[in-house]
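To: structure subgroup
Subject: Chain for Friday's discussion

All,

I'm putting the inputs and outputs inline so they're searchable in the archive.
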Amino acid sequence: MFDIVILTDSRFVNPKNSNQLIENVLQEDQLVLGSLQKLGLQVIIKAWDDSDFDWSSTKYALFRSTWDCFDRFTEFSSWFEQTKNITNFINSYTLVSWNIDKHYLKKLQQNGINIPKTLFVEPGAQINLKQVIDKARQDLSFTTENLVLKPCIAGGARHTYKFHMNDWASHNDMFEELILNETMMLQEFQKNIVEHGEISVVMFNGEYSHAILKLAKPGDFRVQDDYGGTVHDYQPSKQEIDFAKQVLHASPEMPIYARVDIFKDNEGSLALAELEIFEPELWFRRYPEAADFFAKSIKEKLFD
């Protein structure tokens, strides 16, 4: 019987070829594995889609690098629903289900958390992108001419587009195709993310661990390294850490691990870009000691 299975993507299990992404994933998953084992826990790494593994043979399954899940979302969702009946997840099934769909931003806003102005357009809506923009300007007082469009369920900036409101027609066919099956989000473009970056605050059991500043490459707006973004060590202010804590306390339950992505909005106030409590990159390779903090948080919460 295993105490914990660390969940990964099959691309990262005994890869025949390597690149920087694969090396980063392998290093970080090994750091987490080693930290958990040092605490006396029985731990192994498995791909979530490993059909030969008996998921009832582990007390917990820990999401770490399941980064193909959004590309295979129907398959992943089926596995997730089936596996919840025979083991437990870290973070919990309830939290992950809530966090996968970015409607959670609306729930956090209702609980007092500042988010970017966001209009959600539900699947099957009989509306074009120009009408969506008009509705956002009327109902939510959008003021920026540059906008961001993205799906409600996605990762790694999948189908994320920045465009000027007057160029809506060039994105309309794509929008109308996507809206047939998934919720789309229209947001004001946040200039401060480009100018000053996005701060990722990593928290374990509600306590601050470390932080990273993510910067987009010149000429882009996406901070993900897939698009040339860079990461830098960062020491957040007390105000930034307190904001991250407020986000976690506004969530349905306290996550064992969380990455709170924050920035200064167009009005200069701290705002939540995303709350990542499913399979976020946590940069243990830059902060190896944080893997020990993470492991200790898991053991104290679930095994002591």
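Points worth raising on Friday:
The longest strand covers residues 207-215.
The CA atoms of residues 62 and 94 lie 14 Å apart.

D.
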